[in-house]
Amino acid sequence: MSEPTPLDKAEAAVREASTDTAAVQLALAAMELAKMAQQQPAAHPQTCGHQHKQGRGAGEWLAIACAVCVGGVGIAFASIAIAIGGISVAILALVLRSMWRDFQRGK
């Protein structure tokens, strides 16, 4: 059998008291309040209904930083390639224009 809890022992002792004084009534009220507190589930603070994600770990941040660095270098090389291509097109246009003028004068 299960052993009675201290609360049950105290309740039995109070009930066995022969006089119904104010102290006994106060003790009974305190025990009833303690029972009610045990029966009610603990009040949980209001929580939102969605799941919160865990924060990123150090490895994830390191991977993100590496990806940003590689992406930045890639964008830099792409910008240089575009600039070189633009200069090449400009030089080609100037050479073709010069050749066209020489061709027009020679006729």
Description:
This protein has about 110 residues and is mostly helical. The protein folds into two domains: about 5-40, no CATH class; about 60-105. It has three helices and no strands. The protein has helices at about 5-15, 20-40, 60-105. Helix 1 (about 5-15) runs antiparallel to helix 2 (about 20-40). The longest helix has about 50 residues, at about 60-105. The chain is rod-shaped and about 135 Å long. The protein starts with 5 loop residues before the first helix and ends with a helix.
Query: Which parts are unreliable, with pLDDT below 50 for 5 consecutive residues or more?
Result: none
Beta-strand residue percentage: under 5%
Main beta sheet: none
Helix content: over 70%
Tally of DSSP β-strands? 0
What characteristic shape results from the CA principal axes?
rod-shaped
Order of helices and strands: HHH
Structural class: mainly alpha
Please tell me the overall pLDDT: 82
Number of separate helices: 3
Measured distance between first and last alpha carbons:
123 Å
| Number of individual domains | 2
Please give the radius of gyration in angstroms.
Answer: 44 Å
Quickly list its features.
mainly alpha, 107 residues, 2 domains
Give a quick precis of the structure.
The protein has helices at 6-15, 22-39, 58-106. It is mostly helical.
List the helices and strands and how they pair.
Elements (H helix, E strand, L loop, with lengths): L5 H10 L6 H18 L18 H49 L1
